[in-house]
Structure formats: C-alpha cells, structure tokens
C-alpha cells in the first residue's frame, strides 16, 4: 500500500455557519482544491477542528468529502481519539463513509507509554482494512511517537503505510526516512523543501487551502528533482505560511478563506476569532500572493 498518499495533501478546515457544519461551503472548498491540483484531502483532522466535532458530525464531514471527490483524489479521514475504542469506531465509520485511508493522531492527554501506542495503533489497524497514516504532533497531544515505535507498528500491520510527522524537528524526518518502514509526509508547511530533500514523499499542509496550485507545483518539482522554480515558489509561500500560523490554526486560515470569499471564519470554542492585527497581516500576505480578498467589513474593523 505504500505510495498511496504522496504529493500535496491538504488538511481541510470544517466550515461552520451559525454553529453547524456549512456543507455548501465545504463543497466549495473541496472543488477549489481539486481544481487547484491538490493530490489528496484530509477531512476532520486537526485543521478540521475534529476535537470539537461530534462523532456524527465528523463522519458526516468525511462522507460528504468522499462523495464530493467521487474518486478524483483520495480522502484521508481523521479518526484520532484519546479512547482507543472510540478511534476504532470512527475508523469503521470512516471506512463505511467511503474514505480512502485513515489519519490517526497519537491519543491526546493520556500520555501513553510507547508500548501503549503500539497497542493503540495496532487495535485501529486491526479494525479497518484501510491504509493507515500515523500522525505525530506532540505539541497538541503531549506524546511523541518515536521512530522505533513507528517501525514496530508498521512491522506488525501491513496497512500502516505512512506517518505525518509534525512535531519535533527535521532531524526526526531524516531518522524516519532512514528507517524505511513507512512513507514520510511533512506535517509542517515550513518544512516542505527541506523535508522533501531528506526523502519525504509529500506534505499534509494548511497553506494549500489558500494557494493549492503553488504548493502542488512546489511539491511536484521537489519530488521530480527538477527544481526550476522551487526556490522562487518556496520564497513566495513563506510569508503566507507565517501569517497563517500567527495564531492557533485554523483560526487564521478560516479568516483568510473568508477574505477570499470561500467560507466563513467561524470557529468553535475554545478557539476564537483572530486579532485585528493578524487579520490585516493575512490580508497583506494574500494581496502579496496575488489573491483576491473581500473588502474589510465593519465587524472585522471592530474585532
């Protein structure tokens, strides 16, 4: 199964309107990504505010994305949970909903031992036949999935095919590539060039939500080792990445997409709307990237 997920994969936000999932806006986001050349979508991941979605909402988002893509690009379903039983139930639900693979983060808050992580991911891999992508993001979960543990999990379960590494350092990316146990996907937009030079096969990123074609072209050149425009593209992307992570993701991303007219900027508590200074920084970054933005609203000026 290795190689099933590579290139520019985008972590979609979940748009809301008046507290509910805004499915017309989600359709618009999916089509924008496919038209822009993204090679895969992540539904209900960290950027999708999965932590504040009910199980029904999460599976609804996954099913909607799978149905909308209709096989044009693969859909990775975010099914991470702190309770292994819940993660297994979500994995089965995602498989029934039409997902092409599972993105499973390390369980937050519990801080399991490494052998607990082996058992956790093993249970999920044994529950579903879908290819499984491990997701290491210790800044959010409080636990670090070590390379030796990754190799042990992959050695026991053939459907564990990749890892999204989003936490420690590029040195960790290098270690994981050297293990050759799974494919490695960069989990930080700022790592794209360096991670792919080290042997990563793609990125699961946020910035592609705003500039899908730019990120897809950058990743494509790096993978093909034909870096005619890669330095220029990376330089163009950097200010946008910095602005998108000026506050906690996905609040700045949703504000950027709202300024582009693609969806609203509503987030769920405990996240709140971004500061006015961040909003202006985003607007400047979008304009510098040549993207259309909506006029500043009264609410934005007062935020």
Summarize the structure in words.
This protein is of the alpha/beta class and 303 residues long. Helices cover 47% and strands 14% of the residues. The chain has one domain (7-225): Aldolase class I (TIM Barrel). The strands form two sheets. It has an eight-stranded parallel β-barrel with strand order 1-4-5-6-7-8-9-10, surrounded by seven helices. Helix 3 (84-97) links the parallel strand 5 (75-78) and strand 6. Helix 2 runs parallel beside helix 3 (84-97) and helix 3 (84-97) runs parallel beside helix 4. The radius of gyration is 18 Å and the shape is globular.
Keywords, please?
alpha/beta, TIM Barrel, eight-stranded parallel β-barrel, two-stranded antiparallel ribbon, 13 helices, 47% helix
* Structure classification: alpha/beta
Low-confidence stretches are none
Q: Indicate the overall shape.
A: globular
What is the gyration radius calculated from CA atoms? 18 Å
CATH topology: TIM Barrel
How many strands, what sense, and barrel or not for the largest sheet?
Answer: 8 strands, parallel, barrel
Reading the helices and strands in chain order gives EEEHEHEHEHEHHEHEHEHHHHH
* Strand tally: 10
The structural domain count equals 1
Full CATH superfamily name? Aldolase class I
CATH top level assignment: Alpha Beta
Average pLDDT reading: 95
- Approximately how much beta-strand content do the residues carry? 5-15%
Number of helices: 13
């Amino acid at each position: 199964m290795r190689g099933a997920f590579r290139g520019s994969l985008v972590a979609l936000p979940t748009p809301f309107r008046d507290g509910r999932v805004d499915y017309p806006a989600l359709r618009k986001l999916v089509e924008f990504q496919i038209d822009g050349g993204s090679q895969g979508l992540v539904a209900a991941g960290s950027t999708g505010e999965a932590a504040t979605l009910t199980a029904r909402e999460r599976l609804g988002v996954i099913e909607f994305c799978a149905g909308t893509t209709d096989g044009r690009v693969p859909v990775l379903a975010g099914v991470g949970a702190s309770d292994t039983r819940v993660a297994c139930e979500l994995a089965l639900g995602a498989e029934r909903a039409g997902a092409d693979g599972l993105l499973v983060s390390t369980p937050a808050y519990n801080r399991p031992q490494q052998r607990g992580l082996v058992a956790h991911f093993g249970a999920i891999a044994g529950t579903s036949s879908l290819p499984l992508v491990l997701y290491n993001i210790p800044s959010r979960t409080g636990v670090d999935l070590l390379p030796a543990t990754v190799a042990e999990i992959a050695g026991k379960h053939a459907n564990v095919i990749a890892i999204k590494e989003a936490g420690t350092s590029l040195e960790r990316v290098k270690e994981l590539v050297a293990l050759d146990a799974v494919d490695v996907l960069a989990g930080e937009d700022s790592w794209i060039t360096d991670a792919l030079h080290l042997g990563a096969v793609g990125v699961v990123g946020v910035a592609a939500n705003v500039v899908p074609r730019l990120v897809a072209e950058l990743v494509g050149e790096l993978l093909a080792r034909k870096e005619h425009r890669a330095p220029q593209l990376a330089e163009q992307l950097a200010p946008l990445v910095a602005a998108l992570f000026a506050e906690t993701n996905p609040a700045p991303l949703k504000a950027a997409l709202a300024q582009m007219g693609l969806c609203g900027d509503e987030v769920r508590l405990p996240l709140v709307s971004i500061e006015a200074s961040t909003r202006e920084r985003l607007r400047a970054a979008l304009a510098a990237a040549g993207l259309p933005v909506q006029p500043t609203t009264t609410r934005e000026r007062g935020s």
